[in-house]
Design brief:
6-stranded mixed β-sheet; single chain; alpha/beta; EC 3.1.2.6; 14 strands; 9 helices; globular; binds zinc ion; Metallo-beta-lactamase, Chain A
């Protein structure tokens, strides 16, 4: 007898390159993929699970997120959704804040588009309000955030704050498995934060079993991700004491952390 979950949508990670995740959403017959940096692992997963590709979703223009698109399009002529303000030639449906993607092949899954500039100028995130899923590419990571390639600290902090304002139980599907090294940095910033220590224990155990640390949740990120905690007095004080921060305000605090993280080993 079919169980109620038989028809439900599910999200699974397809590991790519060294530490990328291509997220696949499927309903057991149809699938869409988010940020297919390479085609091979996607094609083999589709084949193994007898799924037909329905659409491709892109968060930003970096090669490790779009590199597999051309090959996938050779196999299946599907729409490619992507950022309006990041130049990606294969995008057939350019998107920006306020747009909603509806996927008829996936039970009309609706994804709201959020502009989250900073890592790249046009970076977008996809938010499924009903399912409580967030696909955020290289903007927000487990306990970290993307490098600030094309934005200002103000922009980047505003983008992260937009994501942090989503409900606590929203699941965060980020584009890379960086959580453990990010947590090491987080512990440097907040040595007394027990939530960070506990997350590090749990995520280390996951990695030791070969499991992803993602998805996390917005609530967990707010409790453990230093880049979402740049407005806290104790975080600013710590950065100041360590000699990384001159002026105690959230934007400078965020910029100081981002700068320090770039060279942190
Ligand atoms: Zn990127």
């Amino acid at each position: 007898m079919p169980s109620p979950t038989d028809q439900a949508l599910s999200v699974t990670p397809i590991p790519a390159f060294r530490d990328n995740y291509i997220w696949m959403i499927d309903n057991r017959t149809r699938a869409v993929v988010v940020d297919p940096g390479e085609a091979g692992p996607v094609l083999s997963t589709l084949k193994k699970r007898s799924l037909k590709l329905s659409a491709i979703l892109l968060t930003h223009r970096h090669e490790d997120h779009i590199g597999g698109v051309a090959r996938l399009l050779q196999e299946a002529d599907v729409p490619v959704y992507g950022p309006r303000y990041d130049p990606v030639v294969s995008v057939t449906h350019p998107l920006q804040e306020g747009d909603i993607v509806t996927l008829p092949d996936l039970d009309n899954l609706a994804l709201s588009v959020l502009d989250v500039p900073g890592h790249t100028r046009g970076h977008i995130a996809y938010y499924a309000k009903k399912e409580k899923w967030l696909f955020c590419g290289d903007m927000l990571f487990g306990a970290g955030c993307g490098r600030m390639f094309e934005g200002t600290p103000e922009q980047m902090l505003a983008s992260l704050s937009k994501l942090a304002a989503l409900p606590d139980d929203v699941q965060v599907f980020a584009g890379h498995e960086y959580t453990l090294s990010n947590l090491k940095f987080a512990r440097e910033i907040e040595p007394g934060n027990e939530a960070i220590a506990e997350r590090a224990r749990q995520d280390l155990a996951r990695r030791n079993r070969g499991r992803p640390t993602l998805p996390s949740t917005i609530g967990l990120e707010k409790a453990t991700n230093p880049f979402l905690r740049a407005n806290r007095e104790d975080v600013m004080k710590r950065l100041e004491e360590l000699g990384h921060l001159k002026n105690r305000n959230p934007v400078d605090c965020f910029a100081a952390m981002r700068e320090w993280k770039n060279s942190y080993v």
